[in-house]
Design brief:
With 122 residues, this protein is an all-alpha fold. It has one domain. 68% of the residues lie in helices and 0% in strands.
Length: 122
């Protein structure tokens, strides 16, 4: 908060995003209750803050849902790819009994390994 004493800012407990809208509603209700004693812009600023937060929160929730959906699709695709690699390996083994060296002609074993996450530990 600009202009607020540091103690006031630090004294505010952490608030999860899901509960923040309730606090903003309480703030606006308190401002409206005291509107006769306050500058009219205080109530308008409180409402603007609440309305802006609603848009930010909605966008954040949409992004989280989209990310979760994309991650699940990636996991399903990876499982399907691993299944395909496994079936290919079995087909090669059936076509070339007692010839394990043939495997390298058809597959790269590195493709079966999990890839490292980008940006982690770099």
């Amino acid at each position: 908060m600009k202009g607020a004493p540091r103690e006031c800012v630090e004294a505010q407990p952490a608030c999860p995003a899901d509960a923040f809208d309730e606090r903003l509603e309480s703030l606006v209700a308190g401002l409206e209750h005291l509107s006769a004693e306050l500058d009219p812009t205080a109530v308008a600023l409180g409402k603007a803050l609440r309305d802006e937060w609603a848009g930010i929160y909605a966008a954040s929730e949409t992004a989280s849902a989209t990310k979760a959906f994309a991650e699940e699709a990636l996991r399903k695709t990876r499982r399907a790819l691993l299944d395909c690699h496994y079936r290919t390996l079995l087909t090669i083994a059936v076509r070339h009994p007692d010839q394990p060296e043939k495997l390298s002609n058809y597959m790269q074993l590195s493709l079966l390994k999990s890839r490292k996450r980008r940006g982690k530990g770099v």
